[in-house]
Here is the input.
Amino acid sequence: MDNEPNALIADASEMFYSVEDWSPQIELADPSNRNALSTSMLAELRHAIHEAESDSSIGAVVVQGRGPAFSSGHDLKEIILYQQESDNGDGKKKLGELFGLCSEVMTAVATSPLPFIAKVNGVASAAGCQLVASCDLAYASLDSRASFVLPGVNLGFFCSTPAVAVGRSVPSQKHVMEMLLTGEPITPKRAEQIGLINRAVPKDDLDRIVDHVAVTIASKPRSVVSEGKQLFARQMEEPLDIAYDMASYSMVECAQSEEGMHGIASFFSRRNK
Here is the structure.
C-alpha cells in the first residue's frame, strides 16, 4: 500500500486527509476559525468517513484538529446568519439542516464499522466535544490549551445534541449534567477521570501513543474488529440474558470463521515453538 499522504477531497479547504500504516488521519484544518464544524466542514467530514469505510485496507481512523483547538463546535457566525433569516422561514430550515447534518455525521462515526480515535490537542467545545464522545477511543494532551466544555447554557442554548453523545460516553449522568448546567470547562485529567476520554498524556507523547493504538488496531482482522464494535453497541442496549444470547451466537460464528480458526491455530503454533 502507498503510505504517502493522499488528498481525499481535491477542493477541500477545511480538512486534510492522509493515510499512513493503514490508518487514515482526518485533520480538521481551519485553525483560523478554531476548526468550527460549519456546514461545509461537516459535509467534508461525512465524505471522509465514507471514503475511509470504502477502502478495505483501512483498519482505524484518527481524527484531530490543526492548531490550538480540536474543534470549537458549531460555527457561531453561521448560526447568527441563519438567525437573521428566521423571519422568512429560511433561517429555521437552514438551522434544522445544519443540526441534522451534524447528527448524521456523529451517528456515522459512532456506528461506523471502523474504530474512530480522537486525538485532542486543544479545546473541544460543544459539538467538538460531541465529536470526541462519538469516537470509540479518545486521547488528549495534558497541554494547558486542551479542555472539554459544553458551554451552550452560557449562550442561551442548552447543548442538547452534544449531550446525546457525551451522555452515552460518560458513565455517570451527574458528571454530564455538571458540564451541561455550569458550562464550565474540564481538564483532560478530569475528562479521563469521568470516562470521557481514555487517557490524558504528556503533550510530547500524544502522537506516539495514538499512532501505536491506531496501528495496533489496524493490524487486526478488519471483519473481526468491525463486527465486534457493532455487536458491542447492540448488546449494550439489551437485557442481560438477550445480550448474552447475542454474544454467544457471535462467538460461535467467530469460532467457525476463517479468521477464528487461523488465529487459534497460529496461537498454538507460536506456543509450541
